[in-house]
Amino acid sequence: MRRIALILTALFLCASVRADVEIILTDLGDGVIEISYDATGETELVRAFALDIVATDGNIIDINDYSVGDDNAGYGIFPGSFAGNITVNTTTGDVDSWVGNPNPYTPVAPAGDPDALGDIPGPAITVEMGSLYATAAPGTTGVLCTITVEATVTEVCVTGNAIRGNVVLEDASEATLNPAQVCIPGPGVITDCFPSSFTTYADWVSYGKPKCWCNTASGDPLATGNYQCDGDASGNPYLTTGWRVYTDDLSIVAGNWKRKMAPAAPAADPCADLSHKGYLTTGWRVYTDDLSILAANWKKKAGTPPTGLAGDCGLITRPE
Fold first, then answer.
1. Domains, the chain, ranges and CATH?
2. What residues are paired with 243 via a beta bridge?
């Protein structure tokens, strides 16, 4: 183990400004956001990152997938977690254990430290991540960590933490974060895949914004478009024949016959509502107009109308 004495000053002091380093946010799904970096424009390796992470309309509830310790081609040195949480050999000065005790050894700076934003769970945190190595240096690109946010979060933004030097290079100079702030929509943002200009948009929202009404059929790896409004209630073709509309679609329509939209029970499956409209007097969403659409396109394949299906459901406005 390399000695850590006197390393903190080198990690988080800065001098002249250098070239750019980019922070990259990637949505991995289920509220997990990956935070990575690209320093390929630098002649010096990055020695340390000090970043502020802020969630809007909810909390950051976890942090994972970070390197721990030294000489591991990553950024596993967390100055804010040193005190009492790592085991240092009193004779050699080396670190005997990076396992946090009594508290977790994490990149999150304690909320009581200067200009640290907060703890987990909370809407904002500051992370401090440095490198210390003899042979296994970090790369010019890589993943710093992942964070998990609550389902209500609408945006996650990352900026540098100035008091800690933002991004510090091997020669203790400060790199420029470009852009200075990077943001990504959170899981609380539902991106509309069904145009709000459509007369049926309000019904799509009332259904809970089903993907089967949208431009690309959900769960269909062979889809070249969306055929739901032409009778493909299942969203899948028949592999041997290529038919988009056949018995599985009929079964879905029949299984939802005369059903209404929620909160009625049992509620209609929105994928069975081929016409995207209901009957005004009864409130039924699946009835004869849907069956007529299915019958008119029975055994049709993707192709050119009228003998084929264009796959343009969600792309053009259907007649009311």
1. 7-185 (2.60.40), 190-320 (no CATH)
2. 301
Task: Find the length of the chain.
Answer: 320
For the residues 133-148, what does the mean pLDDT come to? 94
The answer, yes or no, to whether residue 6 has pLDDT greater than 80, is no
With DSSP H G I counted as helix, E B as strand and the rest as coil, what are the percentages for the chain, rounded to 5? 15, 30, 60
Express each pLDDT in 298-314 by its tens digit.
999 988 889 999 888 86
Judged on CB neighbours under 10 Å (0-12, 13-18, 19+), 263 is exposed
Q: What SS3 state is found at 50?
A: strand
Its pTM surpasses 0.90:
no
Contacts of 205 (CB under 8 A, 6+ apart): none
Dist CA 200 CA 214 (whole Å): 12
pLDDT at 10 exceeding the cut of 70: no
For the record, the structure tokens of 42 come out as: 């630098």
Q: Which residues pair with 130 in a beta bridge?
A: 48, 77
